[in-house]
Every structure is written in C-alpha cells, then in structure tokens.
Design goal:
α6 packs across α7, α6 packs across α9 and α7 packs antiparallel against α17. The longest helix has 55 residues. The protein has a six-stranded parallel β-sheet with strand order 3-2-1-4-5-6, sandwiched between helices. Helix content is 73%, strand content 4%. The termini are far apart. The chain has three domains: 386 residues, Na+/H+ antiporter like fold; 116 residues, Rossmann fold; 77 residues. It is mostly helical. It contains 27 helices and six strands.
C-alpha cells in the first residue's frame, strides 16, 4: 500500500504506536504529542532517520484515512436530538470562537504579507483546535464534567462541523488564473457536488440500514466489519469522484447511520481501525515536520506559536466570560483550546495542494501547530500550580446536601421525576442527579431540585454519599450511560440495592448480566394498563380482563427470563417470537376453559345449594302434617 516501506519499517511504526501512546499517557503529555514525538524521532530529522521525506509523505497520505474514519465516527455521534439540545453552546459559542479567532489571525497574516484569501483561510485553519488532544487533556485532569469542560466540548464539536465545509470549500480560496469559463466551471462543479451529496443522502437513508440488517442476519462478524469499512470507503470514493473531499463523504455516511440500530456495533467495529490509523497519522505528521525551520528561524517560529496561543486564549476567555464563566474557568477554557488541531494539518495539506499556500508557508504553520499542541498540557499545569485556589475551586458537579439513609435517583427525566414526586410526598430523602445542566435548570422552574453530575463517575456518586444511601434508582434515558452507572455501582457499592429502568428487552437482559434483578421496562406497565382499559371498552368483564392481563404479564416475564439465555442470538429470539403467538393463544384458551369449568362448577354448587335449602324448608312442614 505504501511503496518503499519494508517489513522492518512497518515493525518500527507498530513499535512506535505501541510504545509512544502509553509512555506519553504515563508522562502526562497526551498521546497525540507522544505520537508526534515518535514521528520526529523516526523521520528524516530524527536520530535513526528510518524514513525519508518521500516515505513520510506516502505514509501520511495513507494514514489520512484515519481522519476519514474519525469523521465517520463523529457523524455517528451527531444525532439530531443531541445537536438540538446543545444548539446554543455549539452554534453560539462555537461559531463566535471560530469567526472571531479566524478574523484576528487573518489580520495578523495579512500584516505578514499574505493575500487576503490566503490570510483568511490561514485564520480559519488556526482557529480550529485539536478535538482528540483537548478532550484527552481535560479528561485526564478531571475537568471534562466542569462547566468550562462542557463548553469546550461544544466549541470542539462546532469546530469539527466547521472543518467539513472548509475541506470542501478550500478551492474557493485559491487564487484562480485569469481566463474564460473559470466561474462557470466553479458553478458547475458546485452544482454537481450538491447533486451527489443529495443522492448519497437519499440512497444512504433508504438503503444503508437495510443492508446492515441483512448482513447481521448472517451472523458473520467479519462481514459486518467489512461492510462498515466498505460504507466509509465507498461513500468517500463517490464524493471524491464528484470533486468533494473524502472526509465529507465519511461524515455524511456516519450522520446517515446515527439513528441506526446498528450504530453501536459499527462504532465498535470501526474504532480500532480509527485509533490505529489516527495514531499513524500523527506519527506521519511528526515525520513530515520540517524541523530545519525551527533551527533556521527559531525567533519567527516561537513568535508565531506564542501569537497563536495568546490570540486563541484571549478570545476564548472573553467568550467564556460572556457565557457566565468566572475568570478561572474561562482561563482554563482558553488554555485548553489554545492549540492548533489535527484538522489543521489536513487543511494545510489541502491548502498547499490547491495553491492557497506555498509549501514553505504550510510547513511553517505545521511546526507552529505542533509546538502549540506541545505547550497546552504544560500551560495548563503551570496555570494550575500558579493559581491553585481558583483551579481547585472549579466544581466538577453541583454541591450536594449531606444525607444518610436516602435514595439516589440517577437520571431526572420523566421517569426519575415520577419516582421523586412519590418520595417527596412520603417525606423520604433523595438526591437526584442528571448529566444535563439544561434539565437541572428546567426542573427548578417546576419546584424540583436536582443536581448536575454524571452518575457513571465515581467522584459524583461519592459526593452523593452513595455509601450511606438505602437504594439507587437508575432512571437514565441513555442505555450505555445506564449500563456504565450500573457497572460502577455494582463494583464500587456492591451492597447498595439497584432499581433500574430498562428502555427495552435487550437493555433488561444486559442489566441481568450485571446481576441487577429489580428491573422495570419503562413502557410495559403503561401498555398493560391501556390494554386493560381497551378490553373493558370492548365489552369484556372485569374478571376476564384481569385474568387476561395477569396471564399475559406472567407469560411475558417468564419469557423475558427465558430469552435472557439466548439474547445475543437474534435468530433464536426471532424463532421464539414467532412461536410466542401460538403459545399465548393456547394460554388464553386454557384460561377460558378453566374459567368456564369454574363457572359451571360454581353454578352447579349454587344450584345444589338452592335444592338443599328448598328441601330443608319443606321438611318441617312434612313433620307438622
């Protein structure tokens, strides 16, 4: 796949990926910086010099598929509901950050002699931060759940979205040669691209999920993995043929499958490839860096790096404060996103290829982005040490009351609120947690009290005094978050009783896997109640209705336990579902027969009792006669 790369070279690359990431994690500098460092050491400017500049570029082109897979996974995560819930932070704060930062950096680039087109595209490139790098640093420092961490995630999400059209629209920033037909060709290319995107959306919407359903029925795991990769590669290839970037195609493919029932399976299949190729991408970036620029022009490189960090930090600090952050958290937000991003490397390559930037300018900016990445964890650590009081004052969750013998409600949506209303009415103490700050604020307006916090994190449950609680109700809407919380409670508080809400039968089966037995399926009882009212409205007697409902409930609960043995085998579950109708019909017929016999026996007993009473009434008259 990559010419001139031998088996020994592949061994060296795999060794770098296996060692650099964990070592960098252990040193606390982030895996991305570890991969970049490994690439520098392996590349033409390193000590062993295993790879030439040509080989490094070839490896980089191959490893760019890791970015394609990253965009596919981003698309999978961007469900419409999630985007809508975060719309203010994503499009408000994120859009303002990219726009203001790009404008400020673009003006600086013009001052350095760039044309306005090249300067604005450079500003947009440098406005993007590293999603993988920033999120990892915030996670390692335990700040991702803090408010500034949530705002950072929203900004990064917008930047990921903004990178897609930037890749696609890069040719518009190129300086076109004067000639006839140029504008017409651009319009034709844009119309063609839009038509292809529309066709991909339509075909994907109606065919992709059905394709994965058919493949899943074969129960061939490798076929699902191959189909997932085929989807990414196929859509990317179609988009490339239409003159649109492969990255945009991958993002669209992921977005089309974001509501698919196979989304988690696809993510699990693609993630190892994405992680490996993305690590290779960063390593190849390290190999491709022209470090001679740092030696030849150290003052210029360091000045540009400092300018990038300062501009992005100041802009983000001001925007963070305008969104309600105090000075300390706003400063942490600015420093966490002050670096250039992985999409910056990709966009620099695109810009150089499209003629927007000269190769020397792209190489210089790539070195600047790399140095800004290296500076981020160092700056955050320095800020934390220099201002420990403010750094430590930032809450990862809302302050919670001191309780003992209380109930913890994890998830304060429509399900958890009903539990809370009953407990409040009975005067029983409880602590309600929800990961959505918007939901916490919303319920306050209705007189309810909930606390912001992710119940799947140990420090949040510790703050809620889980060790003193009498029980925990897991009412979380998201199935994966519900499972993480149940696993944590089982491992950390094995004696704490768990009452869990199950979204569906599969969720119930997964909870049973953990040993959680107090499970209620969220629609089961309400569906039974509707059925009870329906049967009465159709003319059934109260006794017949109750007998039917009880029979069905006992049968379904028994079947839930039976299905648990085979819940990972779709074919067996489907076969049992097909025979279930006949089984249920037989049970109802048996109930009807038993009821008829019981009614007949009761009538016979009543008749016999009446005859006995009549005979007893006549006996005295005979004796009197």
């Amino acid at each position: 796949m990559v010419p001139n790369v031998t088996l020994s070279d592949i061994t060296a690359l795999l060794a770098a990926l296996a060692i650099a990431g964990p070592l960098a994690q252990w040193l606390g500098i982030g895996t991305v910086l570890g991969y970049l460092t490994a690439g520098v050491l392996l590349g033409p400017f390193g000590l062993p010099r295993l790879f030439s500049s040509y080989e490094a570029n070839e490896i980089l082109h191959f490893a760019e598929f890791g970015v394609v897979l990253l965009l596919f996974l981003i698309g999978l995560e961007l469900r419409p509901k999630r985007l809508w819930a975060m719309r203010t932070a994503i499009f408000g704060l994120g859009g303002a950050q990219v726009g203001v930062t790009a404008l400020a950096l673009g003006i600086v680039a013009i001052a350095f002699g760039m044309s306005w087109r090249a300067a604005m595209f450079t500003g947009l490139i440098l406005a993007l931060s590293s999603t993988a790098f920033a999120l990892q640093v915030l996670e390692e420092k335990g700040e991702l759940s803090a408010r500034h961490g949530r705002l950072a995630f929203a900004v990064l999400l917008f930047q990921d979205l903004a990178a897609i059209p930037l890749i696609a629209l890069a040719p518009l920033f190129a300086v076109k040669a004067v000639g006839t037909g140029g504008a017409g060709m651009e319009v034709f290319a844009a119309i063609k691209a839009l038509l292809v995107i529309g066709a991909v959306v339509l075909v994907g919407h109606f065919l992709l999920d059905h394709m994965f359903r058919l493949i899943a029925r074969t129960r061939v795991r490798d076929a699902m993995t191959a189909a997932a990769l085929l989807t990414v590669v196929g859509v990317s290839l179609v988009m490339q043929q239409a003159g649109v970037s492969a990255s945009l195609g991958a993002f669209l493919a992921g977005a089309l499958l974001s509501e698919s029932s196979y989304r988690h399976q696809l993510e699990a299949d693609i993630k190892p490839f994405e992680g490996l190729l993305l690590g290779l991408f960063f390593t190849a970036i390290g190999m491709s860096l022209n470090l001679s620029l740092l030696v030849q022009k150290p003052a210029l490189v360091l000045a540009l790096t400092a300018m990038l960090i300062i501009v992005k930090t100041v802009v983000l600090m001001r925007l963070g404060q305008s969104h309600g952050l105090e000075a300390g958290p706003a400063r942490r937000l600015g420093l966490a996103l002050s670096q250039g991003g992985e999409f910056g490397f990709l966009l620099l390559s695109v810009a150089a290829g499209a003629g927007i930037l000269l190769r020397g300018e792209a190489d210089l900016l790539a070195v600047v982005i790399t140095l800004s990445m290296a500076a981020t964890p160092l700056l955050l650590t320095a800020e934390q040490r220099l201002m420990p009081a403010k750094a430590n004052a930032m809450p990862l969750y809302d302050p919670m009351p001191v309780n003992d013998g209380h109930v913890i409600i994890a998830g304060f949506g429509r399900f958890g609120q009903i539990v809370a209303r009953v407990l409040r009415g009975k005067g029983l103490p409880f602590t309600a947690l929800d990961i959505s700050a918007e939901q916490v604020e919303l319920v306050k307006g209705f007189g309810s009290k909930a606390f912001f916090g992710d119940a799947s994190r140990p420090e949040i449950l510790d703050a809620a005094q889980a060790e003193k609680a009498r029980a925990i109700v897991i009412a979380i809407d998201d199935i994966e978050a519900s499972m993480r919380t149940a696993e944590l409670v089982k491992s950390r508080y094995p004696e704490l009783p768990i009452m869990a809400r199950a979204r569906n039968r599969n969720h119930a089966h997964r909870l049973l896997d953990l040993g959680v037995t107090a499970i209620e399926r969220e629609t089961f009882l309400s569906a039974l109640e509707i059925t009870r009212r329906l049967l009465k409205a159709l003319g059934s007697t109260d006794k017949d209705v109750e007998r039917t409902i009880q029979t069905f409930r006992a049968h379904d609960e028994r079947r839930l336990v039976e299905d648990y043995k085979h819940y990972s085998d779709i074919e067996k579950l489907q076969a049992k579902a097909r025979t279930d109708v006949a089984t249920l019909k037989s049970l109802f017929e048996e109930d009807a027969t038993e009821a008829a016999k019981a009614l007949k026996a009761a009538r016979a007993a009543t008749a016999a009792g009446a005859a006995t009473s009549a005979a007893s009434a006549k006996e005295p008259r005979r004796s009197q006669a």
